[in-house]
Batch of 2 targets.
Target 1
Amino acid sequence: MDVDARHLSGGNLATALRDSRARTLALVGDLTDAQWQPTRQLGINPIAWELAHIAWFAEFWILRGPHQRDGQGFAQARHPPRFAGPDAHFDSARLAHAQRWVENMPTRAELGVMLQGQLDACIDAIPGTHGGATVGTDSATAHPDPLYFHRLALFHEDMHGEAFCWMRAALGYPAPAGVAVPTIAESTLLSVPSGEVRVGYDAEDPGFAFDNECPAHTVRLQDFAVDSAPVSALDFARFVDSGGYDAPQFWPSVAGTWRARSHLVHPQRWRRNTHGAWEMRWFDQWLPLAPDTPAMHINAYEAQAFCLWAGRRLPSAAEWEHAARTLPGFRWGHSVWEWTADAFTPYPGFTPGPYREYSEPWMGGDHRELRGGAFATHARMHNPRYRNFFQPHRCDVFAGFRTVAG
Ligand SMILES: [Fe+2]
């Protein structure tokens, strides 16, 4: 089912676009006007900007093509905006993060009209449905797959839905309706024999692929044994309680620099209650660590430190992908994103897609690759080949990890 999300078309694609939009609106609709206007914070966008950006993105890529790059490298569309504009305000590549907090933004009522108009027009333009031929033909001149931009806009909105979840968690707002603390099964070690494995998406696959997942290529893996589930919060507490944050051998190089600067002696969103037991922050609440809760809001340095303490290591992204695709007992998705040992780099032969800002600017820098999917990630996004990436110090996202022995 999850993989089929990459092959959505026609009425199913329309249903998915409506579903994604309903989720977007539900994730912010219950918040008060005051909650829509938090103080500026790193990693968070103003809600009104983010909603207008979602509408802009879909309209820009689905309805306004074909596209080209201007002299400064910005994407340009042939047709002007009808619902969400101007480009200078709502293209994340054009408007710097700080500026999103000072520009005048549409009101909630204006956003409602903008989002509905854009969604209806984009759905009308799905090739193969009524009225879709005109725009579909136009977009097809820019991309060989006539459904590419619809699917891209769908996944883009799903990603912003998750960003709204982590915004609510970071600001201490209530958990969105229907969102429960993720659980994990008890972990065992699963053995994987050495061999050559295929990683990434084949060009012949007719479904959607993100540019960073291509091209498929062969990787040689040695024998390894991998946890069947992400590391639990209680296991992570054993590392913390052993004084792991104060042991320099677990924090080599840049990890040590981060550790010294942060002054943390436990995960940032943990505290001890009056009886000395650990609690974790969950949106607007403090909860005791339950045995089936994954370690969460853990950054890459903390994940790596745990591994060094436990005599383990983080999986490579190729190991993770191969395990997720081939081991029936490998439990992933629906709990936390998982840090891997790898920096986020292009696959051999990588070519950026039309939405070049998605992957290319972050490749080869300090971003670290994550795999899997969190409780706040739409199930459509769960795919064993999907590559997420964040800077290693980020703990606001719903990230944890699993370990490898050998
Ligand atoms: Fe975006």
Target 2
Amino acid sequence: MFLLRIVEGVVSMSTKHIDRSDLVEWANHEHVHLSKLFDDLRQTFNDMAQGELEGDALQEALSVALDDLDGALEDMLEHFNEEEEVYFQAIEQRFPQYASQIDALVCAHEEICKKIRTLQQCVREYEQPMKGGYKELSARLIALVNSLALAVERHNKEEQDVFEGALKHLSVDEQIALLEQKQALG
Ligand SMILES: [Fe+2]
Ligand SMILES: [Fe+2]
């Protein structure tokens, strides 16, 4: 599991400290992590497209790509579940004006998971290429990973806007209570 576990009031991180009550900053920290999940995959798919991976190296790269996608899906599902079970419910209760935006964010969660599963399927096809062969599949993989990365970026931005507009209006005690609720899910 890659997501950072929050275990103390103020957690020491590589670049800065995030206060326990700053839910928006915690969300931002997790979003930065999720946005980076596909960087290595993009590089791998580009190498495949340029014919730089063959034989055992190609099989190894495919195996790593599948492991990375499994990990990315697991991280995404955990992150999305925490948001839907804790943050989204709290926002809908306290700030009903965000209801339609919350619905759109939930749809984006489903869409992102669907894209990851499509990508997993496409990588598995690469292990036994048919029809158009490697070249066609490589182009498809690159298009899929780019589309996925864009969807994640767009979703993170839209979600941060909602969090900025809603969560920041909660009291410090309320924000800490929500963070503890989120931790309890893990
Ligand atoms: Fe989300
Ligand atoms: Fe999120």
